[in-house]
Structures are given as C-alpha cells and as structure tokens.
Amino acid sequence: MSAKQEDLGSSQPDMTSKTSASTLPPPEKPNAIQTRFKVVAAFWAVILFLGFPIWWKTTSIYRAELPIQEMLDWAGGKSCRPVFPLEIRIDTPSLPDVEAQQLLRLTQHTLDDLNEFSAHHLRLKLANEEAQQTAVRADTALTVRLQAQDDLPSLRSELHAETTMLDIFYSPSQIPPPSSSNSPLASFIAAELQRLFAEEKAIMAHILSSNAVGNSAPSSNSQAQQISPQLAESITKRLRRSMKYAETYHLAFSLFTPGSAPSSWDIESAVQEYISPVIQELSPISNFTVDTQVQLYASFSPTTPAPEFDETYGVWTLKEENLSAFINAAEWPLNPSIGSGPTINFILYVPAPSQSPLVVKESKATSWIIPQWGGVFILNPPLPTTEDSDKSNLLHLPRDALRAPFLTFSHQLLSLLGTPSTPSSLPFRLQTLIRIRAATLLLSASSTTGSLARLTESLPSIPIPATVASSVATTLSHLSFACENLRNGQFQAALASARVAETEAERSFFEKSMVGQMYFPDEHKVAVYLPLLGPIGVPLILGLLKEVKRVVAGWKARRQGSAS
Amino acid sequence: MSPYFGLQALPFLLFLLFAALVASEHTSNWAVLVATSRFWFNYRHLANVLSLYRTVKRLGIPDSQIILMLPDDMACNPRNAFPGTVYSNADRAVDLYGDNIEVDYRGYEVTVENFIRLLTDRLDEDVPRSKRLGSDAGSNVLVYMTGHGGDQFLKFQDAEEIGAWDLADAFGQMWEKKRYHELLFMIDTCQANTMYTHFYSPNIIATGSSELDQSSYSHHADNDVGVAVIDRWTYYVLEFLENRVTSLDSKQTLGDLFDSYDETKIHSNPGVRWDLFPGGEQEGRLRTVVDFFGNVQSVEVERADADEPGSLKEDLIEIAQLVEKWRAFSQDYAAANSTSHHEVARDSPAYEVKRRNVGPAKLSEETPWEKRLIGLSILGACAAIWFTGSTLGGTVA
Question: Full-prediction pTM beyond 0.90?
Fold first, then answer.
C-alpha cells in the first residue's frame, strides 16, 4: 500500500503539464506488476520443473551398464588361456604296478620333451588309478592298451577304427628296468601318441594363432619342424571348406532328375540308416534338421556346357571346370530354409537314360563337395535292359541303391563340418572335432563380447536394453565355465558351455533394438528445434529479462534510497 | 608375451605365414544393390541397380547372396510403354527384368532402417535368410547405392535420408562383427563422394560418381520409354564391366576400372578412397574386379581311388562301420524292449522323424471381447467427461 501512496505523491507535480502526461500510459498498478511477475515465474517454473525433465527423459537413451573392461579382457585373451590337457589312459593288464608306473613316467617325460605347443598336452594316467579319484573326471581322449606278445620282432601299434583305443604290442623283454632313464617302448608310445595328435595340435595352433592378439611375436628356439606343408595346406583347405558354426544346421536332401523317373525313393529309411548314425555322433556339436524333396524335370541352366560322350570308356563326362555351373541355382528350388541356421544341401542327381552313366571327365568321380554349401552325387542306376529302344530310369529308388550316395553324403557332411582327416578312427576324429569346436566357440564368443564392448563405447547414441546386459552376463559366466572345463580336460562340458556362450553373445550383439541410425549433425538439430522453440522462446526470454531488469532497478533504487 | 607361447616357434611362424597367405583370399561373395528413389521419373535409378544386378549374376553370384532393394516397380508401372520390362539402354537389347529376378526388399520396405538392419543383421528372428546379409569374415561385399543425394546424405524414398555418419557406423559395426573381409562401396548420386568421407573401418575401397557441389547426370533418355534410362557414371562402369570383364577369370583390376573413368564423358569428377585399405592405393589397385563382382567358385571333386587320410574311400569305410554299430545298437535296443513288452516295432528308429504339419495358426492371443470392452469403456469415459463439462459450463453461463 505504501508504494501506491508514493506513486500518487510523485505524480502530483506533473499535473501541470497535462498534455505530455496524457501520451504516456497510466503507471502500472503494483498488483499488476506482481501478477506479471507471477505469470512469468509460473511459465518458467513449468518449463524448468516439468518441460525440461520431460524433454530430458524422453530424449535420453537407455543404456544398460555393461562390464566393459571384463568383456575387453575376454576378447584380448587376458581372462582365459585355453589349454587342452588330454587325458590318456594306459591299460597295462599284464604289467605289475611298479613297472607300469615307471613306464608311464618315462613315456610322459618323452612326450613332454617332444611337445612344443604347451597349450595342448597329453597327460598319461594308468587305468586302475582312474577309479580312485572321481572328484573332477576328465574325458578320456584315448585308451592305450599294452599287450604283451612273445617273439615279436619289433613294436607294433594298431588303432581301433570303431573306438578310441590304441593297441600296442610289445615283447616282455622291452619293459624298461626300474633304473633306466630311457626305453625304446616308452619312446615308441610317445612317438605314436605324438603322431596321432599331430593334426589336432596343428589345427589348435592355427585357431589360437589366428585369434590371439598379442601372442604373435615368435620366439627363436625352435628345434623341430612338426607341421609339414602338406598338412598345413590341408588344414587351411578344410577351414575354408567348412561351414560357419551354427546352433542348428538344416540338411536338405534333394533328388533331381531331368525326366519323370525316378519319382520316389526310400528316403526315410536311407536317412535313418546312413545319415542318422553320423548325426547322432555329431549331436554334442550341433542340432540338425532333415528335409527332403524330389524334383522332376530339372534341367541344367542354358549356359552350362552339355555333357560330352567319351568313346573310350563309354561314359558321358562333365568337365571339372564346369562343375561349378552344374547346379542351376536360378531354377532349382534350393532356397535356404526359413528357420534360423544355415542349410547344407545334398543333391542326388540321376541323369537321363540317354546320358547315363555320367561322370566327371578328369577323375571319373561321381561326387564333389561345394565348399560352405553342400555336396553333389551323381547316381547312375542300372537301367532296365528289357527294351533298348525306349530306356527309362527306375520309377523307384530302393534303399540299397541309396547306400553309396548316402554314405558319401555322410562323408561330405563330416568334411563340411570341419572334421579332421586323421587318424583313421571316426570316434577319435569326432572327439577331436569336439575339442576344436569348443576352442573356436570360446574364441568367437569372446571376440563377439569384445566387439560389443567396443561398439558401445564408440557409438554413444546407440541404446542398450537390459536384455543385452543379461545376455552379456550369461555369456561371461558360461565363458568362464567353458574355460574351467577346458582346464580340467572336460571337453564335452566345455563345448556345451561354449555353445551357450556363443548363442548369448550373438544374441546380445544382434539385439534388434540396438540400431544406431539416430545421428544428426548439429545444424540439423538446430533446424528442427528452432521453428518450435523460437516463437515460444522469444517472449519467454524477453519477459524474463524485463522482470530481471525491473527487480535489479528496484533493488538499486532501494539501495540509493537507503544510502541518501 | 606369455611364457606359454614361448616354447612354440616354428609351427607358429609357419602358421603366421599361412594366415598371411590366407588373409588375401576370400571365401564368398555378397552384393548389396540399393536403389533409393521412387516414381516413374527415377526410372534410371532402378535401371542402374538392375544393370549391376545382371552383371553380378552374370559373373556367378547366386541370388541367395545378392540383396536387391528396389523401392518401386518400374516394370509394372502403368506409364511403362513396355510392360514387364526394364531397359538401361535406348537400344532395348537386354531386358533387365527378365524371367529370373529376385527382389529382396521392394517398395516401402526400402527404408534407412531396413538398410542399416540388413548391414548389421539386427533383424527379427523370423526374417528369412534370403533377406539377410549372411556374410562372414571371409566374404567380399559389394555395396552399390544410387538415388538422389546431397552433401553427406542420400535420400531414401521421399521421406527420409541416410547420413554419411550412419553409413560409416553401419560399416564400422560390420567390421567389428567380422561381417566382411573386403568391401567395395560404389555410389552414384549427386555429390556422391561426400558419402564415404566419414568411413573409418579398414578394408574398404570406396568410389563415387561426383564431388561435393557437383551433380551426377543421366546418360541418355529413351524416347519411347519417355525418361532417362541410366546415369552417366554407372553407364561407363557398366561399359567397362561388359566389355572387359567378360568372364570369371578376367584379370582386370580395380585400378583398371578406376582408370577407365573419363571425366569428359561422365561430366563430373568421380572419386576413389583408398586410405582405409591396408597397403593403400598400391595394394588396392591390384584387386581384381571379379574379387567383388564375381563369385569364388570352387568344387572339390572326390576321387574314388584316392586313399590319403580323410578321403572318400577311407571315410566310407569308417562311416559304414559306424552304421553297423548303430544298427547293432538299435537291434539290441529292440531286443531288450521286446523282452519286456511283447510287440514292439522290430527296427525301432535311432531318431524320430518329425513331420511338419503346418496348420492354420491363430494370430492373436486376446479375445475380441476384451478389446470391445476396453473400447466401450474408453468411449463411455469420454462421453462422461463431455457430459460433466457441458453441465458445469452450463451452470456457469
């Protein structure tokens, strides 16, 4: 109220000059000033306490916490050094314990001397020792059975084809005496083991070296060249041929024929008989689904050179360099299957009777592998010889006719999955494959987590949902399980953990909502915000400025007033 | 260096040598061909892409490894005087649409989001594999884009654009996840060279049709079709590919391709970016054109008479033994079963055959009644608000 009186008082001297006063607006009432202050304050309060938080909340990107350092450690190989202690049981039915122990010690010593690749080493164990400790049981990679045979000219070994067992025949005189420090028998066993595991070791070295980050500096104390160039070449060739790892593979068996026959085949029993044993053996590594189809009137593509007739052998031939065009990719329905996971195609081609038998010109072979894709087999069934003028294929392919192609397909499946080629015992090779897969999956899952960590750091605008964080946690825990299992020599368990880790790592990396297409340059942001914020912002800021000015002026006036 | 790798030397060295040898090779080829503009007057952009599609198919990349994105359907456009066909030359010698074309993304599916999802493979699980880029660490990828662009952006359809930053990030993510071995990026649009300025991931060779502030022009129009049918830069690239890269064993290099650019013919200054490629321009120029436009095709014939380890013959014996083992096993199993139960199938299968019977599936879990109820209650609430509002307003007035 006092302010009002002051105003009135001050206006009185100006009453004389009425003309000039009438052009000025009447002075503001103090409560109007107050109302204006309140209005400006209310607007700013809404902006600061409601608008700003909402804008902040709605435009911020949710980024779950990820254990970045741990992920990078895995990728850099600092968290886990994959080792492969293979346990080898030695069965010595005809040896007393002390001598067996001595032999074991000597052999182990020789083995350690021979081995240069310390990540992959063989641990010998006596068979009867095994029963005693059961706490952490490692998988047995191989059983060596020592068999005494009299009057044996030299040591002899024999690998069983259907089990992981190596027989070694020796004559009793070759048992090392308790005091000796070397024996021909021990070095023979060691050399045999070294030979059996040579390829596996080479593959492991390859896998680890191609993934290792800081370990590439070579040392110079080499003694022996273990890997022949031939073996090395076959390894790289196999790696190039084999499919990328997948949780599930779809096997598609297709029968193609240019005519109307054969129009049916005993596929169910053929698959059951010849394919399913292999699939069963491979089941720890991947899942498989089987699809089959019969396609009649399947012609070659028009650009494929036609088969030529070879007079000397009486066969139709395809040139080897034209085999890549054999499959008419445009017209044969070999589409990848709809579900997740790659398809491995196996094609059984029955040529027209007029072009039968059909073989590859150079090698007279009837089957070939297409790397990372599948296999082809040309089946030339015996033609019914009743009427020579009008030859036609059998209408139905019985199971016996499918034996050769389906065994070949099994072989092609094995090599497409990267099964090593030596030694000649399938269970042994599959065991090796399990170890190889465990190692590759461990490394690939680690590198994927590292990629994800680097990605989240380099792209700050990408959202990271909570599911990614939980997937990463699962990945890391399974990676350490896998690593632990490897160290204990439990390769099946390691593979199982590595499979989970790989799946989760892939899932977290390929999370659907992590799509960073939100980058806008700053001028774009200004261009978007200005038309909206300009018209609102100008009166708001001017109002604020005016109010601040008034408050400052009032405060100054009061200070001057109090000073005078 | 860990002591653990210390012992190991020569095998390792050998392998490193090998790895180096292998590193220059690739195991598969993929092509991503993208047109980004709609509407009849942009006929030439689709013709550009279809010409490239025809070329990579001619050089052996199968449809399953080509991702073709066409935002419009020129062949079936009502203004097309030659329905069902697309030509990239006024002589109309080659129908690019043909009988054998697989368009993976069509019409409004061609969006920036889908394109980035495709490159980074962040797609739904139910997206079929034919619409995915399944490349891996051994794949050479060709990315060709054409449309209308500007300084550091390329317009998609008529509503959105992809920035050079997003494209660079997408390639960066591909590199992180080892989704390519080497990548050739080609773009034909106005100010095309600005699109690859932000790339940062290694092993990329990029080339574009025009510099900053330069337009890319169309080559010629077909008077019967009524619009321009191809762009200049693409036309001359194609000319090179058609005349000089006639088969898969062509030895023409990328250097030859880029040297063939003639600015007086193209009417703009095409650019090439080498610095991301290991070895730079020198190394990159040596890459052959078919490294990116062709398909690595190799078959391994299995000789029936070879007997080295792992050969067909050896394996067949082993597999046959395995088959025998399983047969014996299932017979034992059947025998064991038939002692307890009487009539069990003699040859009980070692695995089960699952038949896929696809029946109709219900799409939604909710019952329609729930939705109706929700709708009804919302309507009721709105009516109540309106009613109370009008009564209150009435009393005040």
Answer: no
